[in-house]
Amino acid sequence: MTLHRRSLLRSSVAAAGLLATQRSQDDTKSVGVSESDRPFGPQSQTRFAANIEMWWRGIPFLERIDAAAALGFPAVEFWPFHNKDIDAVAERAKAAGVVIAQFTAWGFRPGMNEVKNHAAFEAKIKEACGVAKRMDCKLATVVGGNDVAGVSQTQMHENIIAALKRVAPIAEDNDITLILEPMNIRVDHKGHCLYGSPDAVRICREVDSTHVKINWDLYHMQISEGDLCGRLAEGFDQVGYLQLADHPGRREPGTGEIHYARVLRQAHDLGYRGFVGVECYPSEAPLKSARRMAAAVRW
Prior knowledge:
- By secondary structure, the protein is an alpha/beta fold.
- The protein has helices spanning about 5-25, 60-70, 85-95, 120-135, 155-175, 195-205, 220-225, 230-235, 260-270, 285-295; strands spanning about 50, 75-80, 100-105, 140, 175-180, 210-215, 240-245, 275-280.
- The protein has one domain (about 5-295): Alpha-Beta Barrel (TIM Barrel).
- Strands 1-2-3-4-5-6-7-8 form an eight-stranded parallel β-barrel, surrounded by six helices.
- Helix 2 links the parallel strand 1 (about 50) and strand 2.
């Protein structure tokens, strides 16, 4: 073998190794998965929405919609809308046959737990309703806010109630449901003012709108309070959307302590038929993680 041919061979082997590494990492597109081998699809007992901020992070945002469709996800979700080409997202999702389950309309800062931010909150919700309609999306997440120095938790929660009452007619007129998300303060969001289900349920019952409900993230609830099935039953009248991740690690179901087959069956028995957001970081290449998850959530 000539030196030139050896050099080419080494280059080819190195390139193949690099390609294999790239395919095994988070940017795997799952291209070539046959329809019958897709982890999610018509056979799934639960309709899942892949969070495309956390899955396929190594590829362009719009391509993540195609990657989700390739694994059989019927829907996707994402975080802020202001840094996205919304029309392109809507077009790409329609072409892929994927629904936009929900997105974030209002984040951590500035907090709606301060009255001074309520006018800006109202303006943003009006904008978000228009964005949701462009994507044929019916749900938008809102976040309460981090602790405010010198303000009690009780008062911050009252301010959240006032903010949501202010925008509830806007949501109702646009037929967009705002979903308030409680976080956890033990692991991910120290210093956040709203965590666990009792306060979130009380807030939404006080607002008393068909279009203001809870983004019930089972991962956050597990860390904050446990008793997932019991708490879900107690507050089910205020559930607008479910999300999941396993704990510890915020990885896909099947990697941690949560018996998601039991929890999702409970949600189904209670009457939940909406999408379940897969807001977790895959522990391996997306196809492998999706297969692990599909096995762990089957009931």
